[in-house]
Input
Amino acid sequence: MNSLIQAVQAYAKRHANSDGLVITPVTGLSMMSVDTAAGDLQSIYKPMVCLVLQGAKRMTVGHQQRVLSAGQSAIVSADMPVVGRIVQASHSEPYLAVAAELDMVIMRELAAHIESTHAQRTSDMQTLFAEDTEAEVIDCASRLMKLLDRPDSAPLLRPGIMRELHYWLLSGPHGAALREIADPDSYASRLAAAIAILRAEYTSRVSVEQLATEAGMSLSSFHKHFKHMTSLTPGQYQQRLRLIEARRLMLDEGCSASHAAFEVGYESVSQFTREYGRLFQLPPKRDALRFQKSSETAASHAAAS
Output
């Protein structure tokens, strides 16, 4: 674990964005380094496993909430809106985590082989699981990190490591629930098809009828199960996607509030400003200014040290 902590901390120090997040060149591999406990961070997670290496974080996914500390992992099993809050971090011991996106194709293929020896199944549509991180999962994460030093090896070695990682998760304490989610006939899998449309076309108007058809559900059934899984309506989910992307455009790419609003599909800047303020607790221009000041402070501290 210590070598993994050192590798994540060193890489994140060079590449983290405004929120402490790093998207690496290895497909699906990301990490986070945050040295001060801060407010809520709004995100839309793809299915993933997140290993908390240092510090602690509270995660709210749909109707579920967990506090994860060093040595624990979170598994998010669907494309979900997540509210994360770092609750334990410092300059000397920052919050550190590394995450790998899950592949439902691999999950389903492996689940078909494991199913015969694990008969237990669950009908609960859970989307957040927390568990102590097993040594085999840490080993897979460490080997994925090593690919960053040898990028030419990633296309050849990553598929095997990811396949092994999925196997250990399916064989772990939440394996039965994960196999149920991987079932193409489950509600979670059917809703995933509709969510994929929302993610791809979030800047456009998408009819609920189209989404329900894609999920193979009636309108009433689709509304019920979508809200149960995500805690949002389809319209609220699309709005969350737009606002999170607009904030990224403003903070990471320096876009103005009006440009970001139109870029993500808003037709009214005033509506964008209202909805942005409700989600992020600050109007967009003030949020961007706050971020700019905090970045300048961090830069001056780094220069002084």
Remarks:
- Confidence is low (pLDDT under 50) at residues 117-123.
- The longest helix spans residues 284-304.
